[in-house]
Amino acid sequence: MENELLRYIDNAGFNAVLSKAARRFADHAKTVLIIEPYGSSIALLLRGLESGLNIILLTANSDLRKISATIIQSVQLAVEVDTANESVLFKLVDELRTVFKIDAVIPGFEYFVPAAARLANYLGLPGINAVNIPGLRNKAVMRTRLASAGIALPAFVVVNTAGELQDAIRHVGFPAVCKPVDAAGSVHVRRVNNEIEAEQAASCILHGKHVLWGYQLANQLLYEEYVSGKEYSVEGTVTNGNILYFSITEKFLADQSEFVEIGHVVNTPISAELKRKIMDYLNDVISVLQPDYCPFHAEIRMTREGEPVLMEIAARLAGDKIGDLINISYGINYYDYIYAAYFGEVQSLPDIEGSIAGIRFFYRPQISSFVNVPKISMLPLDSDISCEEIKLYYQPNQPIPAFPKPLRRLGHVIVKCADYERLLRTLNDIDQAAKFQV
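Below the sequence we write its predicted C-alpha cells.
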C-alpha cells in the first residue's frame, strides 16, 4: 500500500491509525523522528532509509516546508502537523510513543533545533540539554555567553531599538555587519559602511514581520565588527562531550555585502598549524556553549592577525551539500556519523588524506525565471577531474522566489580534483558556461 501524508488530529481515533501504520516498520530497527527535513537533512533521511532505519517524518507541508511526494512515500510514516507549534508537537509525540519506540529526534533545519532538543529531553533520549539551546540558536545569547567566558570575538552590540543602534555605531564603527539574532541562511545579513546603510539594514530587522519555515523572526539584531579575512566553516559532531572534526571547509561568497554563499571547498589545503589553531579555538567555544549528541556547523573568519573568530555555530549538520562533499572527498559516510551522534554512540574517525571536493552554485540574483535548460553537462573536463553531480533546482518558466536570496541559486555542480587551483578554475568555468536565458 502506498504511503500517504497522515494529518494529525487530536482525537481518540488517531492512535488506531498509527497502529495500522506500524505495519510498515521493520522489527528491531531503530526509529528516528525527523522534523521538517530540508536540504542536507534530506540526504540524511535517505541514508537512514538505506541503512534500514524506520523514519517518522513530521511536516507542516506548507510554505517553505513542502515535502516531495517521493519522500513522503519512501518513509515509514509521514505526519502533517503544525511544526512551528511546540505544544502540538508534544501532543503528537505523546501519541507516537504509545505505538513506536523512538530512538532519536532530529531537526531537519535550523529553526527546529530547539523543538528537537526539548522533545529528546522529554523522551529521555540523547540530545542537547535544553538549557543550552538559547546559546546555540540566538546569536545575541551566543555572543554574550562566549564574551563572558573570554572567548575572542568581533566587537558587537545587541540592538533592540533605533536609539540603541546609534550607541552601537559609536561603539563598533564602520564597516560593520547587521544581522538578525535568530535567522539562518544569511537572511537579512548586511555589511554596512555608513549610518544610512546601518539604519536601513537595522530597520528591516527591527520592524520586519518575516516568517520563515513557520518561525517568526525576532525584532532584534547584532551590530558587530566586520572581519575581512578568509571564511571557513567547520563540520563536526559532539557525543557525550567527545568532539569529532570532519572538515575545515573554505567558503566563497557572491559579495561581501549580503554574504550569499556561492561555493564551498572541502579538504581545502591549509597548514597543520592553522588547522590546529582553528580546532583549539572551537574546542573552547564548544566547552562554553555545550552542544552535545548532535552535529555542529561552525562558521569562522580570520582576523588581520591570523586568529580565528566565530561568526556563529549551529547545532545541526552542515547544509549546502557539504556532507556530500565530505563523503566524496574522504570516502566515508558523514551521515552515518551524524546518526551515531544522535543515538549517543561515540565514534572515531579513520586517518584519511582524501581528495579535494568543491561545489559551485549557479547564483543568478536578477533572474526570476528562465526559458532554457543550460547544456552545462557538455563541458569537456580533463581525465583527472571528476564531475560528481550537476543539478538544476527549477524548471523552465517556473517562478523563482526572490526571498530568501539563496533561493536564487538555480542549481549546482560538484567537482573532485587532487589539485586545488584546477578545481577552482573548473568550478568557475562551469558556472560561466551555465547560460540561463530569460
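The chain has a mean pLDDT of 94.
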